[in-house]
Write a structure and sequence with these properties.
The chain contains 23 helices and 24 strands. With 649 residues, the protein is an alpha+beta fold. Helix 22 packs across helix 23.
Length: 649
């Protein structure tokens, strides 16, 4: 079947790619001499991202960065509300267009074809005619020609747009320092008494998209030049916070855009005969919803599905409209309500404020996916150096997904004894000292290698058995107990195979010592042997090893060191809808979750460099919010509520 697409924007390209893969002959017609790159950047909802992943067939090709928190503030920088956004992305329009173009056969794109009219036989179109006189014959014609669609006008007459009551100015700033301070966060400032707002969103490591919305009744001049835009914007936002001023001062207004925000009522249908509309040609909602690009991608996917699953085209088009229209109507109404709230902010109290974005429209099948139970089986050992250096990544994973990912700790039995020991070329304690020095140098995580010269452990089994005993009391306390054993051996050079150090770690993590000692002699040894058997039957030969399980089904195995992004990508492959927590907002949020952190961990968890982290921690110490423990290899910073009595053996 030959499908003629009129318009080479996001909707047209996405539909063309999907149908091209299904074996149809696709021709995309664009009125200019290239695919339009107009527009700066936009937000994309997780449903759009899901479709985009399927279209591109490679998650790594999806552009932009994740935005997982929305902050709503007043011009005095006071916080009104903070909300998790659950997997939105902000991306540059150019990057998305390029990603789609790379997936489509370029020879099937025809340029300089400004659409004029259709040639009909009966009720169906047989060809599209362009102003340059060229004609394209087809079986189906797709109107993907945007907000001011000529195809829509032919099908339904002149579009009655709503009155423009809000204008929006958009700009882009390239500044790494400003962008890094906003990573993962969409911030919007709204005046409490007038229709004036400012929003900013990072869309790369060094770029920010910003927008400012104005009640047109406040605009006292014609904004005809770029200087007009700059002067008016800076005047209206002069009382907004310093960060807003920094962004405006960094803006090149010659690249800024002015948009007249408008929409139109939902159409009674999206098709006539064999001509059908998708994307902005079929529907638009006001920009408060950030729904446009997401809806374009979902339209493309839904229409392709209906055509592929209906032998009768009319049924396919009717089903496409039926599946999409309820969500479209909701988005139109939401946009209008948000516009009304924006124009009359004095009528809305803080508790009534709605997030200016479309909300998740989850289908029943997707709800089941959201309830996925994710477990990571973590094969580890108290003296495993990579298990120590990967702590920042694992801690960030726990912070990011809170209670939605469960870790199951399995002791891998790294060092039974030194008798006939040979693992990875290590045969004696001094080999471990050299290995630790190499790993510490590569990762920045401190390790006290002298222990393997001065007081080497004879085995890692005693602390492993102690951990299994601690698990019998309390899982979370057992993890803190294991962490304390790690700190003893890696930071302080203490021999954690000695019972004295095990008892000290138990005291400092509120483990019942009498029960611990009893269980070490009885139940814990059996549990440890079960761990060893599990390690062997699972074929684990590298520590750490991580087995990702979803709903108790093994999905993927990761060996050795991995980045946070690697873990996250592997998990989201099999559980794409698990909610992600917003990034930590204050330094103390880290200490609420983890009572002890190294400076390397703190830097990683707060997204600060080493010097910034030192300054923050120094301030926290100065105000006595945390305490510091000096070790032979560096400092450990402790939550004040978890100050330990240190016993030196």
């Amino acid at each position: 079947m030959k499908i003629v697409i009129l318009g080479g924007g996001v909707a047209g390209l996405a539909f063309g790619i999907i149908m091209q893969k299904k074996g149809h002959h696709i021709i995309i017609n664009e009125k200019g001499n290239s695919i339009p790159y107009g527009g700066n950047a936009f937000m994309m909802h997780e449903e759009g991202i899901k479709v985009l992943k399927e279209i591109l067939e490679n998650e790594e090709l999806v552009p932009g960065i994740t935005i997982n928190q929305f902050l709503f503030k007043r011009p005095d920088d006071s916080l009104v509300t903070s909300t998790s956004m659950e997997s939105w992305r902000c991306m540059k329009r150019r990057d998305l267009i390029d990603a789609l173009l790379n997936a489509f056969n370029h020879s099937n794109i025809k340029y300089n074809r400004n659409f004029s009219h259709f040639i009909y036989e009966g009720n169906n179109a047989v060809a599209a005619v362009f102003e340059n006189g060229e004609v394209e014959i087809g079986d189906i014609f797709i109107g993907a020609d945007g907000c001011n669609s000529q195809v829509r006008q032919i099908l339904f007459g002149e579009t009655e747009f709503t009155k423009v009551e809000v204008q929006e100015i958009l700009g882009v700033v390239k500044n790494k320092q400003l962008a890094s301070s906003l990573q993962g966060v969409f911030t919007k400032y709204q005046h409490p008494e007038k229709g004036i707002s400012f929003g900013c969103i990072p869309f790369s490591a060094d770029e920010i998209i910003w927008f400012s919305q104005f009640d047109v009744g406040l605009i006292d001049r014609q904004l005809t030049t770029k200087k007009d835009l700059a002067d008016f914007t800076k005047k209206c936002l002069k009382d907004f916070p310093a960060k807003v001023q920094d962004i405006l001062n960094e803006t090149d207004f010659s690249n800024a855009y002015l948009w007249n925000t408008k929409d139109f009522d939902a159409l009674p249908t999206f098709h006539s005969g064999n001509i059908v509309l998708i994307g902005d040609a079929a529907h638009i909602s006001l920009p408060f919803t950030s729904a446009g690009t997401t809806n374009a991608l979902i339209d493309a996917c839904q229409l392709a599905f209906e055509i592929d699953n209906n032998t009768n085209l009319q049924k396919a088009f009717v089903s496409y409209y039926t599946e999409r229209i309820d969500a479209i109507k909701e988005h139109i109404q939401l946009g209008r309500k948000l516009k009304s709230d924006f124009l009359h902010p004095e009528t809305i109290n803080n508790k009534q404020i709605e997030i200016p974005l479309i909300q998740t429209a989850v289908k029943p099948a997707e709800k089941e996916i959201m309830n996925n139970k994710v477990e990571i089986v973590y094969f580890t050992d108290p003296i495993c150096s990579t298990c120590w250096t990967i702590q920042p990544q694992l801690r960030r994973l726990k912070l990011s997904y809170a209670d939605h990912i469960n870790f199951k700790y399995v002791m891998g039995g790294l060092l039974p004894s030194w008798e006939n020991f040979n693992r990875g070329g290590i045969t004696k304690p001094s080999d471990v000292a050299m290995h630790w020095n190499e790993v510490a140098s590569e990762t920045g995580m401190s390790m006290h290698s002298d222990i393997w010269i001065n007081n080497p452990l004879h085995s890692s089994y005693p602390p492993s058995i102690a951990f299994k005993a601690a698990q019998l009391q309390h899982e979370e306390k057992a993890i803190l107990f294991l962490r304390r054993l790690n700190e003893f051996v890696f930071l302080e050079g203490k021999n954690i195979a000695n019972l004295e150090m095990i008892i000290t770690a138990a005291k400092q993590t509120e483990i019942n010592i009498s029960k611990l000692l009893f269980d070490m002699k009885h139940k814990a040894g059996k549990l440890f042997n079960e761990d060893l058997l599990y390690t062997k039957t699972a074929g684990v030969s590298v520590l750490p090893t991580f087995i990702i399980k979803v709903n108790d089904i093994e999905k993927e195995t990761l060996e050795g060191f991995h980045t946070f992004e690697s873990f996250e990508n592997s998990i989201l492959k099999y559980a794409p809808y698990i909610p992600k927590s917003p990034p930590v907002q204050t330094a103390m949020d880290v200490f609420k979750k983890y009572p002890s952190v190294t400076i390397t961990e703190f830097s990683y968890l707060t997204n600060n460099n080493h010097q910034q982290s030192k300054k923050i921690l120094r301030d926290l110490l100065r105000f006595r919010m945390i305490v510091k423990q000096e070790t032979k290899t560096g400092s450990v910073f402790l939550s004040k509520s978890k100050v330990r009595t240190f016993v030196v053996y």
